Amino acid sequence: MARFLFSRLLATLPVMLTVLVVVFMLLHIGPGDPAAAMAGDNASAEQIAQIRQRLHLDQPLVVQFLIYLRQLAQFDLGVSVYSGRPVATMILQRAEPTLMLALTTTLLSVLVAVPAGVFAARRLGLVTDYVVMALCVAGFSIPVFVIGYALMQVFAIELGWLPVQGYRPLASGLWNSLRSLTLPTVALTLLFAALVARITRATLLNVLSEDYIRTARAKGLPERKVVATHALKNIGVPVVTVVGTSFAALLGGVVVTESVFNLPGIGRLTVDSILSRDYPVVQGVMLVFAFVLVVVNLLVDLSYALFDPRIRQDMRS
After folding, report:
1. Would you kindly state where each structural domain of the chain is located, as residue ranges?
2. For domain 92-316, is the CATH number 3.30.70.1120?
3. CB within 10 Å: which end of the chain, N or C, has fewer?
């Protein structure tokens, strides 16, 4: 296990190094002077010079990169150009809505999509199979903001069951927090559940065509037992991969959903920072997202051992 974990961590080093270089170069790949762009059109020469000095843009590029690495080694993501607040603090303050939305969406998607995919696979070619696949296509095709506005119109404005927009923090109570996330969770679930259901169905159909499944059927086992005992445990790897990737994407901030429902999450922070050209915040968000994606992929790799004994054996060797 230790050797497997070490090899996976070693494999992430080139990825993180590439991300560091790309994120660092965000200040330099655009046209013109980045300090002047952040200062705005009406800024004075003195204000531009202050921003340039604060971000070390008056230093050679190599020196700037070394300073950037030194700050990261001290867990310093920099300071916002406009608010003057530490970027790490701004991200942490916006993390709760995004994390809660990611958790609720992932949980609901799995609870809905996996049974739907199994149900469709067991009824291949029947009307119910086509209905499930049609719903999946609709989930992929309809934009999230359209679903979001439709849900707000029906359940928030007309029926008055749920709040229209905004987020209630966990400090106000778990029920209040979940209630404020119900509509955005349902809107995102229609998208991610469609993906998970299609993967579940396709993977289960491949498993059901294997020789050991035919052998189990030849022994006279009921179809329900064949699926539950022999087939389901072998669809875990691709399903977990999709779920893990989707969860990482949600943690990166779902920009459209957070904008529609006015959620003060990481996605909104990213959009606001890009519009205001607050490059230190944009750099910090991208770096945190890359780190989260690497960690989630590592956890997904480790979870494969729960479903595939061959991978478990490789970890032990």
Report:
1. 2-73, 92-316
2. no
3. C
